[in-house]
Structures are given as structure tokens and as C-alpha cells.
């Protein structure tokens, strides 16, 4: 039993565009993870794909269920808040751990230690 036939055409089109667009952005982020040359470049693409793709999918879900129930439903906002908070934090922790590991191993292709602040 599906409620899709009860969805008006304008809402079905909008939800479809948002869901497919979010899936495409997530796919592009995944392809970036596969194609980019090094770890530090690879961190950027999936984090944007996860945040923007998930956001579009959640907006589509909110529109779909709000139209079906004839009242605003915002349960997905909680999911969006968690994704928006945890994705950048995870990105930062992964990059700092990798940078520390690369510095300990003595690799020369990573940035040097944080410079001392200069006085004006």
C-alpha cells in the first residue's frame, strides 16, 4: 500500500527532483573519494556530498510527508542537525589524526608544525 498516488503532481515532481539531486550529489562525493589523489584531498569531497546530498534528500522527505499529512512535519530536522554537526567534526578529527601520523613518520609532503604567532 503506497501513498504516492495521493501526492499532488507539483509535490511529486519537487520531491523527485530533490531526492534524485541529493543522490547525485552524494554519488559525486563518492566518486571524488575514489578519484582524488591523496588522503587530504579525499576528505573534502565525501564530506560535502554527505552534507549537501543528505540535506536535499531530507528536504524532499519533509515536503513529501508534510503534503501527505496536511501539516508540517519536521522530524527530519533532527537528522539534518546531527549530519551537519557530525560530518565536519569527523572530517576535522580524521585530518588531524592523519596529519599527526604523517608528521611522526617524518613525511616531508605535509605542512610543518603550526607557526609561532608573530607580533605586529
UniProtKB/TrEMBL annotation:
Lineage top rank: taxon: Bacteria
GO MF assignments: sodium:proton antiporter activity
Keywords: Membrane, Transmembrane, Transmembrane helix
Annotated transmembrane regions: 12-36, 48-68, 74-94
Protein name: Monovalent cation/proton antiporter, MnhG/PhaG subunit
Origin organism lineage: Bacteria, Pseudomonadati, Pseudomonadota, Alphaproteobacteria, Hyphomicrobiales
